[in-house]
User: Which sequence fits this backbone?
């Protein structure tokens, strides 16, 4: 049977082994925890860099457009660009010569004709006839006047004369007018000749 000393030695060795195993486990746990922290930190840094790159790309797209081509030189960008010179103006296209109008010499006349002539050239080179009330075939724009209505006779005017006849008791118009004009001339209030303002 082992003695007490041997048992103590065995127990001490077992305690040492347990302590060593515990320290190894703690070291492994600590290393795994540190590795997890490092991976989390790297993931956050990469995500921040990715988001920042996207924001910068959007800002670049908004602010800086593509360089203008030769066809679109006159755009909003008005800067000195030696590599993108303006295109030379094209030569003007040759215009066709104007075709002269055909002149109808048969319609020429020395006399001034103020009447709207039709296509009939029977009066070309002649003085136009005087206007008349009758409709002529040569002048379709001239309409016939109303000359065939009978004039009013005395029978038609008798009612009008009865209404306008002056009564004997009434004063004639000429006498009344003369009296009124005399009164107005004698009245000094109505004499405005001295107070007339002349404006130029």
Assistant:
């Amino acid at each position: 049977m082992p003695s007490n000393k041997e048992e103590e030695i065995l127990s001490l060795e077992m305690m040492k082994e347990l302590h060593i195993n515990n320290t190894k486990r703690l070291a492994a746990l600590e290393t795994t925890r540190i590795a997890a922290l490092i991976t989390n930190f790297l993931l956050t840094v990469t995500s921040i860099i990715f988001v920042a790159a996207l924001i910068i790309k959007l800002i670049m797209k908004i602010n800086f457009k593509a360089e203008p081509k030769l066809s679109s030189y006159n755009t909003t960008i008005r800067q000195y660009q030696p590599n993108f010179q303006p295109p030379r103006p094209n030569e003007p296209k040759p215009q066709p010569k104007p075709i002269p109008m055909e002149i109808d010499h048969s319609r020429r006349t020395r006399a001034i004709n103020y009447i709207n002539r039709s296509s009939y050239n029977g009066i070309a080179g002649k003085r136009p006839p005087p206007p008349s009330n009758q409709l002529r075939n040569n002048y379709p724009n001239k309409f016939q006047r109303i000359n065939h209505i009978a004039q009013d006779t005395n029978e038609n005017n008798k009612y009008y004369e009865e209404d306008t006849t002056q009564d004997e008791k009434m004063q004639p118009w000429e006498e009344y007018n003369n009296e009124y004009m005399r009164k107005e001339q004698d009245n000094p209030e109505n004499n405005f000749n001295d107070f007339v303002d002349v404006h130029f």
The chain has three helices and no strands. The two ends are 156 Å apart (CA to CA). The CA atoms of residues 159 and 165 lie 10 Å apart. The chain has a mean pLDDT of 72.
